[in-house]
Amino acid sequence: MGDAVSAPSAPGSQASASLPAGDVPQTKPLGLWADSWRRLKRNKVAIIGLVIISIFLVIGAAEVVATDVVHVNLAPYNPNAVNYKLTPHGLGSPPSLAHPFGTDYLGRDIFSRTLVATRISLLIGIIAVAIALTIGLALGPVSGYYGGAIDSVIMRLADIFFAYPYILFVLLIMTVLGPGFRNVFIAIGILSWATYARLVRGTVLSIKTMEYIEAARAQGASDLRIIFRHVLPNSMAPVYVAIAMGIGGAIVTEAALSFLGIGIQPPNASWGSMISDYLSYFFAGRWWMELFPSVALVLTVFGFISFGNGLRDATDPKLKE
Amino acid sequence: MAERLLDVKDLSTHFFTHAGVVRAVNGVSFSLARGETLGIVGESGSGKTVAALSVMRLVPDPPGKIVAGEITLKGRDLLALKEEEMRHVRGNDIAMIFQDPMTSLNPVFKIGDQIAETIQVHQGKSKREAWQMATALLAKVGIPDAERRVNEYPFEYSGGMRQRAMIAMAISCNPDILIADEPTTALDVTIQAQIMDVIREMQAQYQSGVIMITHDLGVVAQMADRVMVMYGGRTIEYGPVDEVYYNPHQPYTWGLLGSLPRLDESKKQRLTPIKGQPPNLLLLPPGCPFSGRCPYEREVCRGAFPETEIVGPEHGVNCWIPLDERLEIRANLPRFAARVA
Known about the structure:
The complex is a heterodimer. Chain A is mostly helical. Chain A has twelve helices and no strands. Chain A has helices at 32-41, 44-70, 110-146, 148-163, 166-177, 181-191, 193-207, 211-218, 223-235, 237-259, 271-283, 287-315. In chain A, α3 (110-146) packs antiparallel against α4. The longest helix of chain A has 37 residues, at 110-146. The radius of gyration of chain A is 24 Å and the shape is elongated. In chain A, 42% of the residues are buried. By secondary structure, chain B is of the alpha/beta class. Chain B has a domain at 229-332. The relative contact order of chain B is 0.13.
């Protein structure tokens, strides 16, 4: 934008990747993100992951708008509406045209429930990671940059969080806070900050010895400015990966909590609570109740993790060709 | 005489490490006037960089500490300033050009961002104004097509261009003092000359005082008005460049000049290296730091560091060898024989 001197019709500015290395392209040089994206595009698994995430994110966003903003039901049926006609012998009915994912033991539409649960799973994943990230990115860089006593205190605190078995710790917090949607992401959020703090601290330790940090100090930049403007952006690549992985992890944790019965409370659906709820019917041969929420969960988590992996490779400057 | 910008008196900076106290700088004094260039020469570990960093109070603390001395910038005592006030001095009154331009620019920001940031911080300009100034500065230090180049990242710049960008950054707030810490060590010889030209032009334009830290005596001869020779954290000889080069008094200065090839010598001459290693700053000898390596060393040299002796106009030397004896030794050195005669 505002580029007064654009090269006269550069041959395919988009496809600069195919230019031989010896050639000096007169196109606009690739920025950091454009360059990473170029490499990410070549990683098929990461792109599949990105497509899966995008689909679920679109569904989740639509659900959030529908449920929380305009209050309409996007699903074909009311996900919590009980219909005994659809559950002969209380064992649900298999997939059909009217109910593509079948119905559960109360005659509720599995498709609608799975769809609605997307909102809860993604919200928990994203908000929990956002909480963890906020705490982690505030404490981690400060810890790494100042070192000394501040570092020791923050890192020992992180150690405590790491030392407890994760699920047990979440259970403990959930017991204190009480079950429910909001408390799930608060619990996961405050418990996973240590991962980010430690990660960022590590990279900050190496970045802060760089000469450009000293140069910034010689230019009169304040500590805060150096930490959050010069050090942090250089330390973020592993964090983006951790975010992608962390969202997947938080979704699994929510599923585990709901499976244990302290997450999302009935009749509301989350993938974990559905998996837990329908488990016994799976062993009775009523596979569709269990299959669809499980597939949704596995796909989403797979999507986040494979995208995270691809992102790590794409943003790692050491892997630059 | 031009306005006195900087006065450093008896500066001592030590590093308190696990292995012991590293006495990097021990009682060094120097001053700088407007428009003047002071060269600080010495080998690696002689304390020249730490002395410069001390002036900016950028010595990492811990483990480093300025243990004694006075640093006065235009009448202001820098050591008494709060960190907050010191920050306004850095970049604004004193700016620094670093040794390695390849690593001194932040890789995630555009060149323009990095120059504009300093301007925004110190002069409270808007982002747009700061960017315009950044573009103008880049053009001034000789970056072609600055309009476009200002939007590029450091990795798209060559070494020489990065050093030019560093200079643009350093002069962006029109500092009184420019400290150049071996600004050309990491560059090609051909680029070195260009960078020196840029620094000289900028100095002429802004009337800054320049402190040029280097181990390249050629650079000092070309750039500096006065020179200070450091060894083992001490100043052992200082004076106007011509004085020190043509009338050197310290055996270490002889050694430095003797280890340089000369172009005006017709017959083949072997370079004379200085024997031995620079002293370990953890275990500095109590006397002259050059004792132990000095070929003319005597008993007294190991006892205490000699007082400064004035041997010419603004030319001081710290050496225990008596003046007449010193001149006699020098007259017999092949290197200086011709010139002294």
